[in-house]
Amino acid sequence: MRRQLYEVQRAMRARREAALRRGVIAVLDIGTSKVACLVLQFVPDEGSGAPADRPTLRQGAFRVIGAANTRSRGVAFGEVASMEECERAIRTAIQGAQKMANLRVDHVIVGFSGGRPRSYGLNGETEVRHGAVAEHDIGHVLAACEVPDHGHDFEAIHALPVNFCLDGRTGLTDPRGQIGRTLAVDMHLLTINSAALRNVIHCIRRCDLELAGVAAGVYASGLAALIEDEQELGAACVDIGAGTTGISIFVRRQMIYADSVRMGGAHVTSDIAHALRITPQEAERLKTMHGGLVATGLDDREMIDLPSALGGWDHDRRQVSRSELIGVMRPRVEEILEEVRERLDAAGFEYLPGQRIVLTGGSAQIPGFEMIASRFLGRQCRVGKPLRVRGLPGSATGSAFAGAVGLALHVSHPQDECWDFEVPADRQGARRVTRALRWFKENW
After folding, report:
1. How do beta strands 107-112 and 381-383 pair?
2. Which residues have C-beta within 8 Å of that of residue 41, sequence separation ≥ 6?
3. Would you identify the CATH topology of the domain 228-386?
4. pLDDT tens-digit profile of 5-53?
5. Domain 2-115+196-218+403-410 homologous superfamily, CATH
6. Residues 87-110: what's their mean pLDDT?
């Protein structure tokens, strides 16, 4: 029972460890507007005394040796809509990164923003067997967590122990080795739609790649965009992508909540295209070159040339003021922020010690977004770029690449999850987790 429960996740972790021992692994961020790939080379920490053939898994122990991104195809709302088109986009990104790195990559860790993530807070308690907390005690307390019935259509992707309590002393991140009698845990279970997950993994197989891990895009974006103080005191990361807007809340450096809104920058582009009767490609260009969210008196006089609906520049020439363009874009952005505010209020964000909101993603770069977000969300907001990592090209340092950089940080400094411990299979909690992870053992 125990082997069946964890065989898939542990197999992926074994492949990740094998790739890290060889020193090279790739991360792949599949989005609605682009597919980004980073090839990471892990180098041993000379001052740690670790063997040269085994890299130390800590943040900063790697450098980027290959990076590429391509326009996403066959992806809608962060989910695979056309298998062949998505496969072509993934192959293009992987091949571009491999060419830059001048080597072949077999193992990849994937992050994607779709799947309608749902968060559950679990807790469990057990008695410490031999005075000092050991690995098996962690497994027992995780098995004691009562997993809720989240439906057959959703499967667990993350099971993160976010807080341990030993004899009433709370706030422990790793109680192993400490003396106590009663051990309790708070665990964050994140589920996503099983069909969306199945399609992504199948697409990776079609690309002849070995899957070494799957992570939620909202988790990766938060790791990259939030600084240490924000993760410690409590902050929310709002990743405004093209098809979805992901929301993740961190406190004490742990993700405690995640959700998404199925709207993003592509919907703003669609509004521009419909309102001005132009193609989506031209609408995207107008949004990028002239778009904004806060109009001034000068914007009434700034005129923008629109392409002719008949394809000829001399016929049916039209112009629109920048203030009119802003008037088209702003309602949709306000609608997205209204949905984000409802999610944050439902999660109890107002009770955290720190309440800063960090905006990231490609659409967060629209001029005026930070000001509008602060007004609608009622809290201090800033536009966050991903943390700088060694070797990252300048073209990949913008907020649109927070997901890819976050995956790299996740690989270099992974957090322990439920399936990293030996959970006794004879416990009721373990059987419930078995049902929750049924998809992994039936469809791998």
Report:
1. unpaired
2. 23, 24, 62, 63, 64, 65, 101, 391
3. Nucleotidyltransferase; domain 5 (3.30.420)
4. 356 777 888 888 888 888 899 999 999 999 999 999 987 554 444 444 4
5. ATPase, nucleotide binding domain (3.30.420.40)
6. 96
